[in-house]
What does this fold into?
Amino acid sequence: MVLGISPHNLSGVRRFWVETLGCPKNQVDSDKITGLLVEDGMAAAEAPEDADLVVVNTCAFIEDARQESVDTVLEMRSAATDAELVVTGCMAERYGAELAEALPEADRVAGFGVPVSIGAKPSVSPASVDLPEFDLLNLPRPPAEAPWAYVKIAEGCDRRCGYCAIPGFRGQQRSRSPEAIMTEVEGLGVREAVLVAQDLASYGRDQGQGERGIIPLVESLRQRVEWVRLLYLYPSDLTDLLIDAICATGVPYFDLSLQHVSRPLLARMRRWGDGHRFAARIADIRQSQPEAVFRSNFIVGYPGETEADHDALLEFVAEVGLDWCGFFTYSAEAGTYATTLDGEVAAELAAERRRELAEVQDEITAAKRDQLIGHEVEVLVDAPGIARSFREAPEIDGVIAVPDHLTVGQFHTVKVTDALGPDLLAEAVPS
It folds into this structure.
């Protein structure tokens, strides 16, 4: 539908609001949608109710995420009654016509890469759109508002983990060219680039760069920004060369996709590794880089998970002591290998296991934060009074509260004075 100027917008400039759900990769997509809309002559609204166009960038990773996406669409429609409401992102791509029928509140359901601006032609199949023009991966994005930004270096995934539906709607891996990534980072104007992808360490393999595509990319980015952070590394790809490249960035932060530690259960997940290998690799890194920080996520209640499997994961979490850790209850995804497996774990039992793990991890994280009290650390100030050291990934981990007078977008040395769970309090150190 073609929308005129809404009654509340008297300036004559069409305004938009983009609501983003899900992972950092979705945030990058939203930034690129924003860039496209600004290029079309629109301006950002201060609130959804002030917009002529509302775009909801959905997540479809698990059932809870899908429900949140639906709830958000309904909330946006209630808040922005006169706006054109477009639903895009993972859920729109995966369910398409089914979602459009189930959500009459939306004016359009547009999959990846479909133009979303007001007055654009009606929804079409992404396959019929000229990919180089509308592929979000290739669109420019506006300068970052914060001193850091997520940078998506590849789209899609070639792995076939038993629980994951992402390859089915994101497709096979497509790595961006190093030149395109460098140009984007330079245009963002940030001090920290946070690299994201479905399978980060596999960057460049689809371009014939073999096992080392990610390393020269990281080394090149180091010449452009002070901090380079890598999120979501498959453990089998964590080679000595990659570890050295990460540590050389000044951000020895390792976000490892482990998912579990039981070898039989990992085999049912179609995943590599086991708890002993993971623990040994982490110990090796800590030996050479004592300040290294580790994050991971684990799935609880995967089909066939036994009490022995759960106990093994509890023991691993308690003994290895990851700095940050998330736990997710298994969600059956249509079309995945996991839905063919027996050994369903009752929802109540899975929830109990998740709570037990979270309690152990909360104590570990709190203890590690307490250990920083009295120490001086270098921080990047993200906003007035809010900063991070290399130990905290933006929007994911804790933050450091600092004096308001410290300049946003600059690095400062502060002294940690207290810890409040995952967050720290710090005072400025006189220069």
